[in-house]
Amino acid sequence: MNILVFVLTVSFNIFLNKALNESHLEEQDYACMKILNLTVEFVLNGFNQFNFLTEGCSELNEFVNCSWHKAGYLNSDSEIDPERVKDWINTNLVQKTPESTVTAENLVNPCKDIKGEDSGDTVVKVYNCMMEIWWQSRW
């Protein structure tokens, strides 16, 4: 019985621990790392094993603000463009997890109006909100 519990626990942790790695970084991420003089390691360490972003880190906030601006997920007023975010979420999360029943709208709509202290903080909070809904949908 203990072996079964151990195997199930390990399998569960492997399933959950799909941590972000360098292959997930995009062109705009590298451009922002260069502009802000940040390392790949710093950016990757900004995500936990469940792909939530660290909140309250000004350098990480600057990075995600830069990255989302360059990707077009923030408009010229630094406000989130929900339609662009939905497209990104649909392509990079929803379509890559076909067993999931959640849609991009399910993830973006409840989170799109969250506000932080600045645009970078807002992006982190909105992103984490979407990840929380996504993880909850997996149960």
From TrEMBL:
Keyword Signal set for record: yes
Q: Which UniProt keywords apply?
A: Signal
State the signal peptide span: 1-19
Task: Look up the domain of life of the source.
Answer: Eukaryota
A molecular function annotated in GO for this UniProt entry is: odorant binding
InterPro entries referenced in this protein's UniProt entry, alphabetically: PBP/GOBP, PBP_GOBP_sf
The name of this protein is Uncharacterized protein
The organism named in the record is: Pyrocoelia pectoralis
